[in-house]
């Protein structure tokens, strides 16, 4: 996307690309949840209907193996991140879930 922005000449295209690239800053105090999400996500496969969701068994195993304790709201954040990831990832056949 940055490459498109650099090559854009028309003001309306520049504004469109800048708007798409504008994101809020990463919430550094929540980085531990981001790391936990990706540790879990990397170990999940994909089926014909898309990415498999992170399941309770995955969370239980992660917590036991890493000797980590998460509160209910922290688990909910990981679930929300997984839902967003799965919604943004196309299925194997190239369609939308």
Tell how many strands the DSSP assignment holds. 2
Largest sheet: 2 strands, antiparallel
What is the C-alpha radius of gyration, as a whole number of Å?
18 Å
Q: Reading side by side through the largest sheet, how are the strands ordered? A: 1-2
Q: Oligomeric form of this entry? A: single chain
What gross morphology would you assign?
elongated
Task: Determine the fraction of residues in helical runs and give it as a percent range.
Answer: 55-70%
The number of distinct helices, counting runs of at least 4 residues, comes to: 5
Strand content: under 5%
Structural topology:
Layout: H1 2-7, H2 11-21, H3 31-41, E1 46-47, E2 50-51, H4 56-66, H5 72-88
Antiparallel strand pairs: 1-2
Helix pairs in contact: 3-5
Pfam families: Phage_TAC_18
Protein name: Tail assembly chaperone
InterPro entries: Phage_TAC_18 (IPR056919)
Descriptive notes:
The chain has a domain at 26-88. The protein has 97 residues and is mainly α. The two termini are 24 Å apart. The chain has a two-stranded antiparallel ribbon with strand order 1-2. The model has no long low-confidence stretch (mean pLDDT 86). The protein is 58% helix and 4% strand.
Main features:
97 residues, mainly alpha, two-stranded antiparallel ribbon, 58% helix
């Amino acid at each position: 996307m940055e490459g498109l922005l650099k090559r854009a000449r028309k003001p309306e295209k520049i504004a469109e690309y800048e708007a798409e690239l504008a994101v809020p800053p990463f919430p550094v105090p929540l980085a531990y949840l981001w790391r936990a999400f990706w540790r879990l996500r990397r170990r999940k496969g994909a089926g014909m209907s898309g990415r498999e969701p992170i399941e309770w068994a995955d969370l239980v195993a992660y917590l036991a193996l890493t000797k980590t304790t998460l509160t209910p709201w922290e688990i909910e954040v990981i679930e929300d991140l997984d839902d967003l990831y799965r919604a943004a990832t196309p299925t194997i056949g190239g369609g939308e879930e």
